[in-house]
Design goal:
The protein has 456 residues and is of the alpha+beta class. 31% of the residues lie in helices and 24% in strands. The chain folds into 2 domains: 97 residues, OB fold (Dihydrolipoamide Acetyltransferase, E2P) (Beta Barrel); 289 residues, BirA Bifunctional Protein, domain 2, CATH 3.30.930.10. The structure holds 4-amino-1,4-dioxobutan-2-aminium adenosine-5'-monophosphate (4AD).
């Protein structure tokens, strides 16, 4: 269907020329001699005003004024008030009628209400802006790594190993309810893969294998977590970007994470000015200034041990008490980034007991070379580490955790055949989108959120 994207018309309006546009009716106003409607085709946050001049006896289809109706409109592009382009309609074709029960009416709907209709909420201004920012952020991530000699690697979503430890993995099975097996072993042997399989919580282990060949890689795909966390920042299916870098130690990993974030946020500010102004106005006043501030200053860095001291001396009453050895909760993370540093901050060198088996063991025997990036408003958006590259130390850490070494023989081979210092991190893509847009619930930055008890 030949037509021009609204985005193209707004970018370079050829006043006086005839154009054809398509879209859905967002608002309409009718009077005796003239009617106005606003059309949106999704390519732009701005709507195109269509003027239907009825004075010359011209007839337009009555359905064209109904909200949600889809139209093809041809007419002359003219300069409206304040130089804004609008179209004087000559011909209107109704592509699809929309009855009055269309749930997206003119008023501003709550995000909670919109969550009940994921199939339609893409047609609101909020999701128009969220989806475009997501798209531009994703492109900026690819561009950042591609420009720096990283190879984009696709790691498996179905896995036989449980990368991060017990409990969080969705099981993949083709066997429905059955009571014909004597035990779990028999059951799994009969299943599709002949062994227990699940959806991957992270592409890291396979990413490490690729990095041990290609040097610098990144993955960008869905990860799945079956944690029962019904919070504004947890999804059961989230998009995960994980670079893995050979010949790199913890300070290198931190440097790359900061540089990459600054690049992608700078790109969104540059490429999505309308969307960012929308979020600044409707979601977080001062958002654009906050992001500009972020990309023009160095992020903070603090060790876990020092962070615990700051929290204990804060005089704050936390719901979860603070002691060296505890995992940092969102309230602690936010206190550190919002009250102490007032900016993004890397927390490093966590106790080994609360982190994964693969992290490089520090000389103190108590901590590992882990890093989390905490940002104001959201908390943790990045988790990473230098990896343990020493075969014996890695085996010892796995044994301490009672892990089955046979399942990880491929992973251990990396430490036998030309092991090198290496590391990487995982960025939760939706958490980044939350941070960049000021949208405070993760369910509102992905079109079809999957959370505990919700898979619509
Ligand atoms: O800290 P995590 O669990 O680290 C890993 O998975 C490592 N394998 C990463 C690596 O070193 N390659 O997860 C990384 C990030 C978190 O910081 C968070 O932003 C996001 O993934 N994340 C989630 N996002 C939404 N919903 C969830 N349930 C998430 N769990 C983690």
């Amino acid at each position: 269907m030949k037509h021009t994207d609204l985005k193209e018309i707004f970018a370079k309006p050829a006043f006086g020329e005839d154009v054809t546009v398509c879209g859905w009716v967002r608002t309409s106003r009718d009077s005796k001699n003239v009617a106005f409607l606003e059309l949106n085709d999704g390519t732009s946050l701005k709507h195109m005003q269509i003027v239907l001049d009825k004075a010359e006896g011209k007839e337009f289809p009555a359905e064209a004024l109904k909200l949600g109706t889809s139209l093809k409109v041809s007419g002359q592009l003219v300069e409206g008030r304040n130089g804004v382009p609008e179209i004087n309609a000559k011909e209107i074709t109704v592509l699809g009628n929309c009855p009055a029960e269309y749930p997206l009416q003119k008023k501003r709907h709550t995000l909670e209400f919109l969550r009940t209709m994921p199939h339609l909420r893409g047609r609101t201004n909020t999701f128009n802006a969220v989806l475009r920012v997501r798209s531009v952020l994703a492109e900026a991530i690819h561009q950042y790594f591609q420009d720096r000699n990283y190879v984009y690697v696709n790691t498996p979503l179905i896995t036989g190993s449980d990368c991060e430890g017990a409990g969080e993995m969705f099981q993949v099975t083709t066997i429905g309810y059955s009571d014909q097996y004597k035990n779990a072993e028999e059951y799994y042997a009969d299943d599709f893969f002949g062994q227990r399989a699940g959806l991957s919580v992270s592409g890291q282990l396979e990413g490490e294998m690729a990095a041990m060949a290609m040097g610098k890689i990144y993955t960008f795909g869905p990860s799945f977590r079956a944690e029962n966390s019904n919070t504004p920042k947890h999804l059961a299916e989230f998009w995960h970007m994980e670079p893995e870098i050979a010949f790199a130690e913890l300070p290198d990993i931190i440097e790359i994470a900061e540089d990459m974030l600054k690049h992608v946020i700078g790109t969104v500010l540059e490429k999505c000015p309308q969307e960012m102004a929308f979020f600044d106005q409707h979601f977080e006043n001062g958002l654009i200034d906050r992001l500009k501030e972020l990309i023009s200053h160095e992020f903070g860095t603090v060790t876990y041990t020092e962070a615990i001291r700051l929290l204990k001396e804060s005089g704050e009453e936390f719901v979860y008490p603070v002691e060296w050895g505890v995992d940092l909760q969102t309230e602690h993370e936010r206190y550190i980034s919002e009250k102490v540093f007032k900016k993004a901050v890397f927390v490093t060198d966590y106790p080994k007991e609360i982190k994964s088996f693969y992290m490089k063991q520090n000389a103190d025997g108590k901590t590992v070379a882990a890093v989390d990036l905490l940002v104001p408003g959201v908390g943790e958006i990045i988790g990473g580490s230098e990896r343990e590259a020493d075969y014996d130390k890695l085996v010892a850490a796995m044994k301490e955790r009672g892990m089955n070494l046979d399942q990880y023989s491929d992973y251990l081979d990396l430490r036998r055949f030309g092991s090198v210092p290496h590391g990487g991190f995982g960025l939760g893509f939706e958490r980044l989108v939350m941070y960049v847009t000021g949208v405070s619930n993760i369910r509102d930055v992905i079109l079809f959120p999957r959370t505990v008890g919700n898979i619509r």
